[in-house]
Design a protein that fits this description.
Radius of gyration: 55 Å
CATH superfamily of the largest domain: PAS domain
Number of domains: 3
Largest sheet: 5 strands, antiparallel
Shape: elongated
Structural class: alpha+beta
CATH topology of the largest domain: Beta-Lactamase
CATH architecture of the largest domain: 2-Layer Sandwich
Mean pLDDT: 76
Strand content: 15-25%
Low-confidence stretches: 1-5
Helix content: 40-55%
Number of strands: 12
Strand order of the largest sheet: 2-1-5-4-3
Order of helices and strands: HHEEHEEEHHHEHEEHEEHEE
Distance between the termini: 49 Å
Length: 508
């Protein structure tokens, strides 16, 4: 579970109190262990004195007088005493005795006789202070020779439960002192930390909150001293540098905006130049295409001037004249759409319809003589978000390059089976347009250069070398890609990929 966030002062108090409390409790554990050790040592010393006293009470009869041994056992805090010989026979006993005590006394005596030294053993389990501990302490002390010249051992049993009770009483007092000491130390530590840490940090926070550009409402620490004051001075210096950097950044941004504006103007100028170059190549064909309907119109006008034509013929001639005029109007408007200079306004554009319009304009050109264009639109979706005029210019540049590709180096010797294939398909949220010509192709060494500005393999006056460079930039600005694949002497394919408009989206 996530703890609620605390303020700086409350957090310091909580953490400081916790650390002090943990330290006190660890000290308490150590103190209890030392006290337990000292009490056990005192109990062993008391047992040694009791054993010495019992040796003096033991007589030739082999018994320990109960009226004398009982008070000694009670005064020393022991429950029972045994004297056992080397054969495991109990020579004398006193105190509260059970069969289990007698068996354990014999075992303890045997161990002491084998080693010839004092022995101590623990039996049973009882709750001590902070965890369970042994319940009974059994001490073994070698005794003097008996009258029958046999070595013997005095075995004493004592319960440790009274010792644990005394330790628990002491533990309660120690815990009370720990709580009081923790409260006092936490209060004193909080006061010191508040003066030396919390208040300076709050001044720093107030400095950052009230800081405005070029204005310090909170005075900075000027005198040398603690790290907090050094931090305050460093923060002030940082804010001063920040003001200078912000001004420099603002100047750089202004400079970049001016450079971007100049670059935008240069790009638009290049686009207009390339567009006018393409329109210039189309103008002669358009003029030739307009000449035919004008001649037809003049012929019909001469026939309309004759007085011997019927009304039905007159109406038919007028309809034909109107049809030719509309044809001229459509050709001129299409040429104007190509040459019109306008601001970029992205909208929803049908790629298939745009390709069809572009092909229609090209098909009337003299340069298309003997050349066939085949379209195969397999893309189920074809709507993209783009500027229609710029996308039209891209397709026009690619198609005119394809026308040049099926023509010889001198502008002549077109292949008899010269064709241009246009294929479209859509997948993965993109529409792909492939324009392939079966012309002379592009050599391997020239293929990486085709998108370089002003690079061209055409004769002087035949091209600017900007068509593909401009087209590549336009497609990338629309979020798509343009690449070229070529097999020298066989074919060249230009691939245009554009992101389709997702359902629910639309052009601006």
């Amino acid at each position: 579970m996530r703890l609620p966030s605390l303020g700086l002062r409350a957090g310091i108090i909580a953490q400081l109190s916790f650390l002090i409390l943990i330290a006190m409790l660890l000290c308490d554990v150590v103190m209890i262990k030392f006290a337990e050790r000292d009490l056990l040592k005192a109990r062993v010393d008391a047992g040694r004195l009791l054993a010495a006293s019992l040796r003096g009470l033991h007589g030739e009869s082999g018994a320990i007088p109960a009226e004398k041994a009982g008070p000694l056992l009670e005064a020393a805090g022991f429950s029972s005493a045994f004297m056992v010989d080397r054969d495991g026979k109990v020579l004398a006993e006193a105190g509260s005795i059970t069969d289990g005590d007698r068996r354990r006394a014999v075992l303890g005596a045997m161990d002491s006789l084998r080693t010839g030294a004092e022995g101590a053993a623990f039996t049973g389990r009882a709750w001590a202070v902070i965890r369970p501990g042994p319940e009974v302490l059994r001490l073994s002390f070698p005794a003097a020779n008996t009258g029958r010249d046999k070595r013997s051992v005095i075995v004493l049993n004592t319960s440790l439960v009274p010792m644990y009770k005394e330790l628990r009483k002491s533990q309660r007092m120690i815990l009370i002192y720990i709580i009081l000491d923790t409260a006092v130390l936490a209060l004193a530590g909080t006061l010191l930390l508040s003066r030396n840490v919390v208040r300076p940090i709050r001044r720093l926070l107030r400095m950052t909150e009230e800081y405005t550009e070029g204005d310090f409402r909170v005075p900075l620490e000027r005198d040398s001293g603690s790290e907090i004051r050094m931090l305050s001075r460093s923060l002030g210096n940082m804010l001063n540098r920040l003001d200078r950097n912000k001004q420099e950044l603002k100047d750089h941004i202004d400079s970049l905006e001016r450079a971007n504006e100049e670059l935008r103007e240069a790009q638009n100028s290049i686009l207009r130049s390339e567009k006018l170059a393409s329109v210039g190549r189309l103008a002669a064909g358009v003029a030739h295409e307009i000449g035919n309907p004008i001649s037809i119109i003049l012929g019909y006008l001469e026939m309309l001037a004759r007085p011997d034509i019927s009304d039905a013929e007159r109406a038919d001639f007028l309809g034909r004249v109107e049809s030719e005029i509309l044809r001229i109007n459509r050709i001129i408007r299409t040429l104007l759409d190509f040459s019109r200079s306008s601001e970029e306004r992205p909208g929803t554009v049908s790629v298939h319809a745009l390709l069809a319009d572009t092909v229609e304009v090209l098909e009337v050109q003299p340069l298309m003589e003997g050349l066939k264009i085949h379209m195969k639109c397999e893309g189920r979706e074809d709507c993209v978000c783009a500027d229609e005029g710029r996308l039209r210019q891209v397709f026009l540049n690619i198609l005119m390059n394809a026308v040049d590709g099926v023509t010889g180096d001198q502008g002549r010797d077109r292949k008899q089976d010269a064709t241009i294939q246009i294929w479209t398909g859509s997948r993965d949220g993109e529409i792909e347009v492939r324009i392939t010509d079966n012309g002379r192709g592009i050599s391997r060494e020239n293929l990486p250069k085709v998108f370089d500005p002003f690079y061209t393999t055409k004769d002087p006056g035949k091209g600017t070398g900007l068509g593909l460079s401009v087209s590549h930039r336009i497609i990338e600005d629309m979020g798509g890609s343009l690449c070229i694949e070529s097999r020298p002497g066989r074919e060249t394919t230009v691939i245009v990929r554009l992101p389709l408009i997702k359902s629910g989206e639309g052009g601006q």
